[in-house]
Structure formats: C-alpha cells, structure tokens
Design brief:
- The protein has about 425 residues and is of the alpha+beta class.
- It folds into two domains: about 240 residues, Bira Bifunctional Protein, Domain 2 (BirA Bifunctional Protein, domain 2); about 90 residues, Anticodon-binding domain (Rossmann fold, 3-Layer(aba) Sandwich), CATH 3.40.50.
- It is elongated, with a radius of gyration of 28 Å.
- The termini are far apart.
- It is built from 14 helices and 16 strands.
- The strands form three sheets. Strands 1-5-6-11-10-9-7-8 form an eight-stranded mixed β-sheet, with helices on both faces. It has a five-stranded mixed β-sheet with strand order 13-12-14-15-16, sandwiched between helices. A three-stranded antiparallel β-sheet has the order 2-4-3.
- The structure holds adenosine monophosphate.
- Adenosine monophosphate binds next to strand 6, strand 10, strand 11 and helix 11.
Length: about 425
C-alpha cells in the first residue's frame, strides 16, 4: 500500500519564495512606518501559559471557548499556542516592570499566531499578524495615532479603498450598566432570537449584534445602543479621538454595533475592512484595553493597540511588490574550471552583485538556456579567459579578467 501523501496540516500553508519576497518587502515597509511613529520592535514566545489567554482574552470569547491550540507539556503544564498578541505584551509589561520606564511604552510585533478556526480563503489556523501596543497612557491622541499608523501601513502596502469603522465601548462601569439594559431587552425578545444568542445572553450579550440569524437581526435593529449610554468622560474621550482623526483627514464610519471578538476592549474600538477580501473582510483592528494589565496582575495601566493580518494585507494589496534583482550568471565552458568560475562568482558577490554559478553539470548550451530562464541580466562565460554576454542586447565580448568582469557588473547596477 502506498504511504499516505504528506501535506501541510489543514489551515496552514508554505510560503514559497515568490510570496516570501513580498512578505519581506512588506516587513521592511512596516518597520519604516511604525519606527517613524516611535514604536520599537518586540517579540513574545509562540506559546504561553493557557491561563494568560483565559484571563486576558476572556473565557466567554470564541477564541478561548473553541479556537485555542492547547496542549500539556511533559511537566503537566497547560500551554497554548498564542492566538493573539496583546495579552502576551501586557504579561511582558508586568513581568519586566515596564511601568518604571518612560510612559507610554510603545512596541510593535510581527509573527505567527494560531487559532483553530474553520479554514477558508483568508482564514487560516496559522496566520501572521503585525500589531502595535502603547501602554501607560489613556491620552486620546494615542488612539488616533495608532489608527493613523494602521492607515499609513495599509497605504504603504498598497491596500486601498478600505472602510474604517469606529466606535466606543465606554469604560467597565458604563458598559456594565449598558449590558444589564441589553440583557433585559434580549430577554424580553427571547422568542425571536437564535439559540446560540439565547444561550449567551448572560455571558456575552454584545455578540447578538454580530448574529447572521434573521430573527435576531430584526430584534437587534431596535436594541439599545451602547454609544447612547456612555459616561460624560467616555463621550469626551471618544469626541477627542474623532476630532484628531478629522483633523488628520481620515474618514471613518461610526458603527455603534462594532463588536470585536475579544473581551478586553474599553472605550475606542476600530476595524479596517477591505471589499477585496470577500467574506473575511477584516484587514486589521484593535482598540483600547484600559483594564487588561491590571487583570493580569499589574498596576492599573491603560493601553491601546491593533493587529492586522499579513495574509489579508497581501490578498487585498494592489501593489506589485518588486521581485529580486536579476542575477549575473557565471557559466563554465569546456575549457573552464569550476575553481575559476567559483572564484568569479565569489568576487561578484563580494562586490554586492547578486550572482549565480553553474552547479548542475549542464552543457554550455544548457547553461545559456538556464540563464534565460532565471532572467539573468548577463552571463560571464568562464573558459580559457572570461567572455561577458549582455543578455538584453546579446553583445558578447572577452574581458581581461575577474576585475573587469566585476567592474562591468557594478557599472550595470549604476
Ligand atoms: P483579531 O486579533 O481577531 O482582532 O484579528 C486581527 C486581524 O488578524 C484580522 O483583521 C485579520 O486580518 C487577521 N486574522 C485574524 N484571524 C485570522 C485567521 N484565522 N486567519 C487569517 N487572518 C486572521
């Protein structure tokens, strides 16, 4: 019996060189944008104590209820592959006493995340996120700044025509009062709600706004709105965020039903959507989480941040990212030696020239074909001497040696 074909696990994928080049280029642009904004790079482990996400993301969320890759290590500890990046940053802030640093502490991260979701286009079980977090200040300019940085990053990535949705969830207290009101309303209309929503009226009534179920949607059209119940302070904070965005010329829709799938948000929440993505339209989003650090055992510390999906950014991008520069190819004639060819390719590389050398035992004819295939801009043919062939013009002439070959290659760059 033939062995089962080995494939990448469901919801995962290989990043082949062409795609990997785009990612590296996006990484470079991301670094430039976020670095200018005063954010410094940060990495956290790929797995954490399960407890961190239970406390940090929230027991009632889809992520914690059904999407975590949780396993026991050999010492019997429960660990979880990180499903998101904010709780780890907050854990690190507490662990390293970062409240003693100048505030706010601003970091950005980029790396793999894991959620056991139903895999489909734009939704994977291992995906990559870029994100930022600013901890230690509740200044509304941080909310506005973080939104602007995401807008700038999307622009730099060639993601155009996005919609920015914006809302405020208020602080814990005003939210609790609102949630009680919403629960009362949902119970009054229990008969029209989907089973799923009904089962979660107590735990997470906000999710009712997300429901696709027709009866539920009809009920939610008349539901009390969170934005109407904000405290004066929260309203003022939200107004200042909007004012700064208006001044910066960023357009947005205030969407009072915007609910994000994580429990920790307070005050500002936002999401960028792209029509080019179809059903999985969210490119990136985030918000303020003023209670999270304290929840994880740290001092009361406000925070704000976002995460965006790298795969979704690349899917939505209209940019043709530049590929690798065309190489110089070093071919070996019958009269040439491997040693001489290897010496030339090494000299070219030392001079900063991307170059390749024959390494597959091809005839000279086969090598010239190969050079076209890899789109070489020139071929240096090593025989008794060195011939230089410009692949665009077809001109071929002898050169005096390695030095001249390198000089020509460098000259072509300029
Ligand atoms: P979230 O952490 O849920 O707020 O997600 C932030 C962003 O990460 C989303 O807007 C998506 O772009 C991306 N994302 C989240 N989950 C997935 C997934 N399963 N597959 C691909 N991208 C994802």
């Amino acid at each position: 019996m033939a062995a089962a074909k080995l494939q990448a696990p469901r919801g995962t994928f290989d990043v082949l060189p062409e795609e990997a080049l785009k990612r590296r280029e996006l990484y470079r642009r991301t670094w430039a944008v976020l670095g200018r904004g005063g954010y410094r790079p940060f990495d956290s482990p790929a797995f954490e104590d399960t407890e961190l996400f239970k406390r940090g993301v929230g027991e009632s969320t889809d992520i914690v209820r059904k999407e975590m890759f949780t396993f026991e290590d050999q010492g019997g500890r429960s660990l979880t592959l990180r499903p998101e990046g904010t709780a780890p940053v907050c854990r690190s802030y507490v662990e390293h006493g970062m409240h003693k640093l100048p505030q706010p502490v601003k970091v950005w991260y980029w790396g793999p995340f894991f959620r056991h979701e139903r895999a489909q286009a734009g939704r994977y079980r291992q995906f990559s996120q870029v994100g930022i977090e600013a901890l230690g200040s509740d200044d509304p300019s941080l909310d506005a700044e973080s939104i602007l940085l995401l807008a700038e990053l999307l622009e730099a990535a060639g993601v155009r025509e996005t919609t920015l949705k914006l809302s405020s969830l208020g602080t814990r207290d005003s939210r609790e009062a609102y949630l009680a009101q919403l629960r009362r309303y949902l119970r009054e209309h229990e008969g029209d709600l989907s089973e799923d929503v009904r089962a979660r009226v107590e735990q997470n009534p906000l999710r009712a706004f997300d429901a696709g179920h027709e009866g539920t949607r009809a009920v939610m059209a008349g539901a009390p709105q969170l934005l109407d119940g904000l405290s004066a302070e929260d309203s003022e904070h939200f107004a200042e965020v909007r004012e700064l965005l208006d001044d910066a010329g960023v357009s947005y829709e205030v969407d009072p039903t915007l609910v994000r799938g994580l429990d920790y948000y307070t005050r500002t929440v936002f999401e960028f959507e792209s029509e080019r993505l179809g059903a999985q339209s969210g490119v990136g989003g985030g918000g303020r989480y003023d209670g999270l650090v304290e929840e994880l055992g740290g001092p009361p510390t406000p925070g704000v941040g976002w995460a965006a999906g790298i795969e979704r950014i690349l899917l939505a991008s209209e940019t043709r990212f530049p590929g690798a520069p065309r190489p110089v190819y070093v071919a070996i004639d019958e009269s040439g030696t491997r040693r001489a060819a290897f010496g030339l390719v090494t000299a070219l590389r030392e001079a900063g020239i991307r170059s390749e050398v024959e390494q597959a035992g091809r005839s000279l004819k086969g090598q010239m074909k190969h050079a076209s295939r890899i789109e070489a801009r020139a071929v240096a043919i090593v025989g008794e001497g060195i011939e230089w062939r410009d692949m665009d013009t077809g001109d071929q002439r002898p050169v005096t040696g390695v030095q001249e070959a390198v000089r020509i290659a460098v000259g072509m760059n300029g």
